[in-house]
Amino acid sequence: MSRQLVMFAVIGVVNTGTYYGFYLLFLTGVPYLAAHVLASLLSMVGSFFLNARFTYRTPPTWRKFLLFPLSNATNFAVTTAGLYVIVDVLHAGSRFAPLLASLWAIPATFVVSRWVMLPRTVPARHEPAAVPHDDAWDCIKLQ
Length: 143
Known about the structure:
mainly alpha; 5 helices
């Protein structure tokens, strides 16, 4: 998992650069929140393919591709909220605000992306713990 975390961080830096380039490009023609949304969508596609290949070493599939935005939903929500707080509440400039806001979302994004990209194993079925017999419990069936 430590290799995955390192690769996730490296790809995160690349993805942040891609996002930021798109953000600055779109910022010239649309409001900052629209620039943020467009840049996030475009960089998410690149992030999916880079993480599939290098971080998780798993083949990209349509299922994973369609679920991958879930891994970025937390990132998107946190960075959008952070962007709003930095720009509108703290009255800082919008130019570097997304870089600061994105730092808050990295750990949650890793956890969710790992869940989406890697196969899940089915846990073994465990028998329920023994419950002392009491006539009041006869109506409850343990499974």
